[in-house]
Amino acid sequence: MTNGIASRLSLALLYLLILLCLGWVSFYSLTEWRVTVDRQVNLQMEVAASTTPATAPEIVAQQQLLQQTAREAKKRADNAIAVSLVSFSFSAIGFLLVYYLINLQLQRELAERQRAEEALRQAETKYRSIFENAIEGIFQTTPDGRYLTANPMLAKIYGYSSPAELMANISDLGQQLYVNPNRRTEFIRLLQQHDTVAGFESQVYRRDGQAIWIAEQARIVRDDNGKPLYYEGIVEDITERKHAEEERAKLIAILEATLDFVATADLDERVNYLNSSACKVFGFDRDRDLAGLHLSNLHPAWAYDLLHREAIPTAIQNGVWVGETAILSYDGREIPVSQLLIAHKSSQGKVKLLSTIARDITQRLQIEASLREAERRWRSLLENVRLVVVGLDRQGVVEYVNPFFLELVEYTSEEVLGKNWYEVFLPPHQRQRVQEHFLQLQQQGLHNYYQNSILTKSGQERLIAWNNTILRDLQGEAIATLSIGEDITERYAIERMKDEFVSVVSHELRTPLTSIHGALNLLSSGLIDAHSDRGRRVIDIASEGADRLVRLVNDILELERLESGKISLLQRSCNAADLLEKATDLMQVMANRAKVTLSVYSQDIQLNVDGDRIIQVLTNLLGNAIKFSPEGSTVELSVEAIEAGENSEFGILNSELNSASASLSTNILFTVKDRGRGIPEDKIESIFERFHQVDASDSRKKGGTGLGLAICRSIIQQHGGRIWAESVLGEGSRFYFTLPSM
User: Fold this and answer.
1) Whole-model pTM?
2) 292 has which bridge partners?
3) How far is CA 224 from CA 191, 228, 520, 594, 612, in A?
4) How many CB atoms within 10 Å of residue 646?
């Protein structure tokens, strides 16, 4: 560019110099010409004046003509000189103007050149910065496979510390770098064929021997004759992308193999992918173009409405939505599905794609319906069965109880659920044993069947026979127990009574029968004369045994009739004083024989009772008191009206009396008091049971059957009253019973 400017400036200067020279020559010539003209005109005028008289007209005219011609010649010379001067001036001015313009152009071009050079330096700096800091590897190589240049990223990709180290160690790219050298050959072939190659993928070795994937883009740089000078291009490490593609390929294979329905759609709900299972259920060919397919085409109206209104907005906001919807099969069937909807977002948080996975839950719903029905049936059974059902977790906390259990223990479900079974419902003396059984049941499967007592809200113990089942999770670990129990309190009592009955009755029957049998054998064998004193004694023994058997049988039959309700009470108005008088009259003979005094404290109180049965109770209590009282002692019999909360004259109002008084404002209290040996505290309650006596020898010594107090309790309870006893060993006993007033 500088040479061109200098050349143009030189030509302009030369042109202007020529013009100046020509102007100067013209001016000089014209000046000389005017001087010459002046000389000639003056000479002619002088000649004319000297040769011709001045007065001659012709001469005068000629002179005037010559003068006129001279003046015109001078004028033309002056004009020519002026024109020449003007031309010269304009030439100078033109020279100066051209010089100025050329100089201005030169300065402009020099400024442009400086700017271009600065831009070139900046571009070179920028290129160098890009080259040094590029995130891709940049290279120049010779056609035979040697590096000419390499940037730091290329060295880093291949595992070298610097480009210099890379170029020093790699002298043959195809053999040293490529896992498969044929890929380098193919790369060169494509490059020579097309001059450029883009996205060429290969596996190469890093310095540490690790194989990585790269993508190359390159071009050939040629000289003016088209001969290749070198190859230049960029290299990108695509190992992670290849791994991602491999994982994606695996995922696609899984998606294609799964029985779930998988689909993807863009934000305007146009479907762009269906897996094989989805294509099958929707009746599409695998290669069908999905253009125009919308989510609304795949779902019934209600399900699409749910997706459109709730599922998609929720997934866009939260990233995911899970729920139950339905899809439409190719034949119009509505298939219930459990559906997962995912909104895929870019790194900037913008949703790019929607994908969904749906699983056919038809069978699950059928199973759930069957399970619900089975659960309903079992729950109905557990809720209505007259058995105790209790569910405990591994720590023994109550998780479930059925209504019968609540009825039995008199608790509400809120008072039971979440409570510790051992602490709330087991008697203290059984807690450790039952807890050990519970642990052994979970760990070893022992004690599937056992019995223990439970406590009701009122503190009563109920004996339960349990059948225990371990509940396990899917891994077989014990997570809870379910126990079904039968309340065997009454049955146990009956069995115990039966055992005692068999024991006592067998004893009570055997003793008199033995005496009767022995006496009859003695009489029938003739060993003893029936008319002798000894014979009469033997007959008396047999008679007493027979009487004892009769009493026993009569008591058993009467007690059974009372408890079975086969004997109806004949209630009528009676006076309490009359009842006490009749009872003492009946027992006076027995008292006289035992040398015991009967003391009666009576009051005129009207009762509505079966008088005969009340007298039976009184005589039974008096008979027991007389039998167990020492000679010379007194047996007291009294009756009084007791208001609720009022004490009797003897100061006796225990819990039984308070309980009896709770339902009635007035009760009639009967008391029989003796001075006998007393009853142990642990047997005070059991004496009212069948065949129960404080001392087993009493039946032989005192002649009782062990059924009297049981008969008394049954009679009093049928009248709506209560009977109980209080005793102090060595001091005596008191028997009480209450009857409702009229």
Assistant:
1) 0.38
2) none
3) 19, 10, 157, 156, 148
4) 13
The strand order across the sheet containing 634-643 reads: 597-601, 634-643, 666-673, 732-740, 723-728
| Residue 469 CB partners (closer than 8 Å, separation 6+) | 448, 481, 482, 483, 484
What number is the average pLDDT over the span 52-80? 59
CA atoms within 13 A on the CB side of 199: 1
CA–CA separation, 80 vs 86, rounded Å? 10
Produce one character per residue of 689-714: b if its CB has 16 or more CB atoms within 10 Å, e if not.
bbbbbbeeeebeeeebbbbbbbbbbb
pLDDT digits (tens, 9 = 90+) for 266-318: 888 898 888 888 888 888 877 777 778 888 888 999 999 999 899 999 999 99
Return the amino acid letter for 50. Answer: S
What is the Cα–Cα distance from 640 to 102, expressed in whole angstroms?
154
Task: Count CA atoms within 13 Å of residue 298 on its CB side.
Answer: 30
Q: Which helix (DSSP H) or strand (DSSP E) does residue 498 occupy?
A: helix 489-525
CA distance linking residue 535 with residue 526, whole number of Å: 10
Distance separating alpha carbons of residues 125 and 131, to the nearest angstrom: 10
Q: What is the mean pLDDT of residues 396-403?
A: 90
Question: Alpha-carbon distance 389 to 487, whole Å?
Answer: 11
Give the number of other Cβ atoms within 10 Å of residue 110's Cβ.
13
Residue 199 CB: number of other CB atoms within 10 A?
A: 9
Q: What is the DSSP letter of 682?
A: G
Measured CA to CA, the distance from residue 388 to residue 116 in angstroms comes to 102
Measure the CA–CA gap between 22 and 17, rounded to whole angstroms.
9
Contact 712, 563 (CB under 8 A): no
**Most confident region among 247-251, 274-278, 336-340, 569-573 by mean pLDDT:** 336-340
In three-state secondary structure terms, 269 is: coil
The residue written with tokens 């001036």 in the block is: 89
Regarding beta strands 449-455 and 666-673, do their DSSP bridges make them parallel or antiparallel, or are they unpaired?
A: unpaired
Strands 461-472 and 606-609: unpaired
Amino acid of residue 486: E
Two tokens at 186? 């193919």
Distance of alpha carbon 490 from alpha carbon 497, whole angstroms:
10
CB 553 within 8 A of CB 508: no
Task: Write out the two tokens for 534.
Answer: 């000894």
Q: Is the dihedral of CA 430, 436, 440, 446 positive or negative?
A: negative
CA distance 470 to 482: 6
Helices (H), 594-721: 611-627, 655-663, 698-701, 708-718
Write out the DSSP string of 103-156. HHHHHHHHHHHHHHHHHHHHHHHHHHHHHHH-SSEEEEE-TTS-EEEE-HHHHH
Averaged confidence pLDDT in the chain = 79
State how far the Cα of 607 lies from the Cα of 739, in Å rounded to an integer.
Answer: 8
How far, in Å, CA of 534 to CA of 530, rounded? 8
Highest mean pLDDT (candidates 139-143, 518-522, 706-710): 139-143
Phi-psi region of 480 (alpha: psi -120 to 50; beta: other; left: phi over 0): beta
Q: Which pLDDT score is estimated for 30?
A: 55
Task: Output DSSP code: residue 630.
Answer: P
Give residue 736's pLDDT band: very low, low, confident or very high (50, 70, 90): very high
The answer to whether 687 and 693 have CB atoms below 8 angstroms apart is yes
Contact 483, 468 (CB under 8 A): yes
Strand duo 228-237 + 211-222: pairing:
antiparallel
Model confidence at 557, pLDDT cuts 50, 70, 90, reads: low
Q: Are 210 and 232 in contact (CB under 8 A)?
A: no
Residue 682, both tokens:
């642990």
